[in-house]
Design goal:
This protein is an alpha+beta fold and about 350 residues long. It contains ten helices and 16 strands. The relative contact order is 0.19. The structure holds ligand EPS.
Length: about 350
């Protein structure tokens, strides 16, 4: 079995709350809700976020699996309450007698899940698709990742991210003006970022089966974040370089193997090689536009303009925080597989 750290999430964008149940956490690891809340705050921030982030102040409640600050070995449950729910209680009601078409919509947003999702689940009201396909669910994914991240820190493994590009500009001084311009135009912007994880042990992942290759697992986790369209590891010009230019030569220094370059991005043969993990990803522009795109109305199959409520102009900074979190969950899974055990002492002994 190659999933030791497992989780499922539930919850709608404007429903009562978002929930996650994490399975497979050993006992004895310190969990600090303030650390999780700090990561949630980072996810809510960034230049170009929309009105929803002014309503929310995402805070986690841990409802199982932790006692007196440490994991007990039992499933850990996380809950984030949606503040906006008080404005949506009737619309998101679970009771048949409350059925209303207030806030229903039928005009597909090109680029979002509306069209395929409504065909797949046979929904007339695209609200039923929007509510779960919304990137709102990345709040609870970030909370799960923050649990993983603080356990990784107990192994001295640390991650962070940097924004590399917003729309067409790589110049940090121009990021805000680019976003302002897009906002004025009723448009949205994507971008590119990198996530780095430092102090990686050698040999997480494996070359023996396709589904144990760590690069594949990381790519899946990051690609699963809404709007992420590319994931690459290490020097993204690899396909253009010669073998002699690309591969990271090995030397001995003070009796240890060292490298002068890290074009591999910390992964060789589907395994960590001890160098920093370096994961690049790009995010497409958010598909909910104030200046709507041309589309089709599912109600009468006429041509029209797409649905708009509110949206972010740019969420690349938030996306990078979510990616840190998703990668943390993958890495913790590998740590638990490799150094296995049911409690902190066992695992630390194996690790050392
Ligand atoms: C998000 C909350 C959502 C959106 C955004 C992500 O809230 P609302 O729909 O109430 O404005 O702001 O999601 C999208 C833009 C999208 O297209 O899915 C959040 O918490 O990050």
């Amino acid at each position: 079995m190659y999933e030791k750290f497992r989780f499922l999430t539930a919850g709608e964008s404007h429903g009562k709350c978002l929930t996650a149940i994490i399975e497979g956490l050993p006992s004895g690891f310190i969990i600090d809700p303030d650390f999780i809340n700090g990561e949630l705050k980072r996810r809510q921030g960034g230049y170009g976020r929309g009105g929803r982030m002014q309503i929310e102040s995402d805070t986690v409640e841990i409802t199982s699996g932790v006692r007196f600050g440490k994991t007990t070995g039992a499933p850990l449950t996380l809950v984030i309450y949606n503040r906006d729910f008080e404005n949506w209680e009737k619309i998101m009601s679970i009771h048949p007698e409350d059925e209303t078409d207030e806030k229903s919509f039928t005009k597909y947003r090109p680029g979002h899940a509306d069209y395929a999702g409504s065909v797949k689940y046979n929904h007339k009201d695209l609200r039923n698709v929007l509510e779960r396909s919304s990137a709102r669910k990345t709040a609870i994914e970030t909370a799960v990742g923050a649990v993983a991240k603080q356990i990784l820190e107990q192994f001295n493994i640390r991650g962070y991210s940097r924004i590399l590009q917003i729309g067409n500009t790589k110049n940090k001084d121009e990021f805000h003006t680019e976003i302002d311009r897009a906002k004025e135009e009723g448009d949205t912007l994507g971008g590119k970022f990198v996530v780095i994880y430092e102090n990686m042990p050698v040999g997480l992942g494996s070359y023996v089966h396709w589904d144990r290759m760590l690069d594949g697992r990381i790519a899946q986790a990051v690609m699963s974040i809404p709007a992420v369209k590319t994931v690459s590891i290490g020097n993204h010009h690899s396909y253009k370089l010669k073998g002699s230019e690309f591969h990271d030569e090995m030397f001995i220094e003070n009796g240890k193997i060292v490298r002068e370059t890290n074009n591999a991005g910390g992964i060789e043969g589907g395994m960590t090689n001890g160098e920093n993990l370096q994961i690049f990803a790009s995010m497409k522009p958010i598909p909910t536009l104030r200046k709507p795109l041309r589309t089709v109305d599912a109600a009468d199959m006429s041509e029209t303009e797409a649905h708009f409520e509110r949206s972010d102009t740019c969420a690349v900074e938030a996306c990078a925080v979510v990616a840190e979190a998703r990668i943390a969950a993958v890495l913790l899974n590998e740590i638990l597989l490799k150094y296995g055990g049911d409690n902190f002492d066992e695992i630390m002994r194996n690790f050392k």
